[in-house]
Amino acid sequence: MLKAASLFTNGAVLCRRKEIRVFGEADSGSAVTVTLTDRRGNLLAENECIAADGRFTALLKPQEAMTGCTLNISRGDECFTASDIAIGDVYLAGGQSNMELELQNAEGGAEVIREHDDPMLRYYYVNKYAFVSDEQRAAADNARWEAATPGNCKNLSAVAYFFAAKLRRLHPDVPVGIINCNWGGTSVTCWMPEETLRQTAEGARYLDEYARNGGNKPIEQFLAEEKTWQDEIRVWTERTETYRAAHPDAKTEEVDEACGLYPWHPPVGPGSPFRPAGLHETMTATVVPVTLTGLLFYQGEQDAGCTEHYDLLLEQLAAFWRAQFMDDRLPFLFVQLPMWIEFKPLWPTHWQEIRLAQAKARDFIRNSGMICMLDCGERGNIHPVDKKTPGERLAELALDVVYGEKAELCPRAKGKYTDGNRLTVILNAPVRAEREELLLEIAGEDGAFVKADAEINGNLLSLHADGVEYPVHARYAWVEYAAAPLFGLNGQPLEPFLL
After folding, report:
1. How would you label 269-293 residue by residue, b for 16+ Cβ within 10 Å and e otherwise?
2. Largest alpha-carbon pair distance within the chain?
3. Is the peptide bond before 289 cis (omega within 30 degrees of 0)?
4. Which strand (E) or helix (H) includes residue 84?
5. pLDDT (tens digit, 9 = 90+) per residue, 272-298?
6. Neighbours of 8 (CB within 10 A)
7. With the C-alpha atoms ordered 214, 215, 217, 221, is the resulting torsion angle positive or negative?
8. Is residue 344 predicted with pLDDT exceeding 90?
9. How far apart (Å, rounded) are the C-alpha atoms in residues 446 and 246?
10. Which of 272, 333, 340, 447 has a 20 to 30 Å separation from 397 between CA atoms?
């Protein structure tokens, strides 16, 4: 028996300049030979491995970017051949709904799908299944690479598409492959197995809390509850579509008022995609241990208000994925949450805390980076349709972290010092104010923050406020929703801070 993982079928993108891992299923003890040839049939790499536990993994030497290659995998008389293989940069795009939002639903997406023709930009869609089943295994076996040619890419992550498209413009001779692996509404804990989550107190808390809330109910009960919930969603969707058809200019707030809010109360249970430790086995594990250029991640919304230690969980995910993909310096690039609040908020968003936790994780995780999106949130819409901005900012970040090239990055605070009744914040780049309300605050040792008056001098913010005789703390953009006021000279927003 010989079966290559579906990642290694026609049109696949293999990672350049790193050891190439080719894997699949084979009878234990059998010898599997893998060869890679160029478009002229010249041998680029060859290796043999012995299958164990029903699986094989062959290692091929690093290659430079090219297209038109052929991959041959053989075991005795059995042979599998994949053509139109490209070698380039391969990124996994993970996270929840803002990474999941498909190109067909993004601003400008319809035109891109209709007109974009770039066979060197390709993607592999990891099918969404919440628990292991014959259907899930069949879907994993049948997944295939698609090229960004007219009519394709409808279900590709819009953020990942705009990221890849910019890299293709910047590095036109290098193919780019995206492994699309994400699910809306998921916590960061959904993407790690139980044994990994149990290694931290916070991960264990998520598991135990889910179990207490009914996570261990019989699968039959869960499926019945999920069907009821999905029926509610269908009714809501039909109602909103009917209303929008009759009121094409209606704003989101008006639609919510007329049709009610989206019925977001997913049932808990063993088949839920939102359970901790749920999706690694059914999704991420199906592409492990493919060789990657980097990891992209846009998530955090679901964990806002659920944890005070999101930074630890994010650090744990980065370490786990790096171990899974066998690269302890695999670049980890992620998106900081933007501004957001409901039109009629019922409770705090806690996104300020998540944003700072994300920055803290960035500072801890080596070879990582974070983009700021403070200027891109939408009031009342948790899913902004502008995905070009985060995608292209991630590409700029990749220039810096992955490729070591000059990039346009968001300015950030480096430190502070106090001189009498003034506190000066030191930034890593000059900024300018684009609005009067600067969202800057200071506090004394009592920690009571008040609005600060500010003088901007290049990369220095000099802050003071009446009644704060000796300020020792400063913060910026500690609000649920407001227009971002401070930007670098390159047009990138200043990252929020708490010092």
Report:
1. bbbbbbbbbbbbebbbebbeebbbb
2. 84
3. yes
4. strand 78-95
5. 999 999 999 999 999 999 999 999 999
6. 21
7. positive
8. no
9. 55
10. 340
